[in-house]
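in:
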């Protein structure tokens, strides 16, 4: 990249890709997280992201309904 943005916004980066691409995307996301970059992922299925994401913001009908860490998401019925 020519610039090093502080924020990345991704729309379902693991959706409809093969397993090799999933691994590459996850490695890239982990690298961004380790480089102190913020990553926002829009998805209807947060489960693939729970083991590396720090905090999760849930929306319903365009409104925020909760903001929790991965452990709280895992113990709820929203994941």
């Amino acid at each position: 990249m020519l610039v090093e943005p502080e924020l990345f916004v991704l729309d379902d980066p693991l959706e409809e890709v093969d397993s090799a691409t999933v691994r590459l995307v996850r490695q890239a996301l982990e690298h961004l997280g380790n480089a102190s970059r913020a990553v926002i992922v829009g998805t209807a299925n947060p489960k693939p992201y729970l083991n590396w994401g720090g905090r999760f913001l849930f929306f319903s009908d365009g409104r925020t309904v909760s903001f929790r860490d991965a452990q709280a998401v895992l113990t709820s019925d929203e994941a």
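note: The beta strands are 7-11, 38-42, 55-60, 63-69.
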